[in-house]
């Protein structure tokens, strides 16, 4: 099985996998019913300070990647998150849902890379 990324504002491409929202903030305008998610793991998202510093500026993405990875390494929720993902991957694909408009420079990409490297 694999980890997939999907923007929560788009029509769901795959409802068969385990759908996991990985943003710290709930996406504006999305109802919990329409989100079609299995779990919201907000504690795994970047800190408010890091998120605000980054501001989705592509020029800051490389540094954001380093800082967010460092946060993941220190976050006490990371092992719990990793265990959840590992268990789900035994049965089905896992879909990380995120709200960012930029599909090339966002925290879900960093998280996916981190998880794949540490599983």
UniProtKB/TrEMBL annotation:
It holds the Pfam family DUF488-N3i. InterPro entries: YeaO-like (IPR052552). This is Uroporphyrin-III c-methyltransferase.
């Amino acid at each position: 099985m694999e980890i997939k990324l999907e923007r929560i504002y788009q029509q769901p491409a795959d409802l068969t996998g385990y759908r996991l929202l990985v943003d710290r903030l709930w996406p504006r305008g999305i109802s919990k019913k329409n989100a079609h998610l299995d779990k919201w793991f907000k504690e795994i998202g970047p800190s408010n300070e890091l998120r605000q510093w980054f501001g989705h500026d592509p020029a800051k993405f490389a540094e954001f990647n380093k800082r967010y990875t460092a946060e993941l390494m220190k976050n006490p929720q990371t092992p719990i998150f990793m265990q959840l993902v590992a268990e789900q991957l035994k049965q089905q694909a896992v879909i990380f849902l995120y709200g960012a408009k930029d599909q090339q420079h966002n925290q879900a990409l960093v998280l996916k890379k981190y998880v794949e490297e540490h599983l």
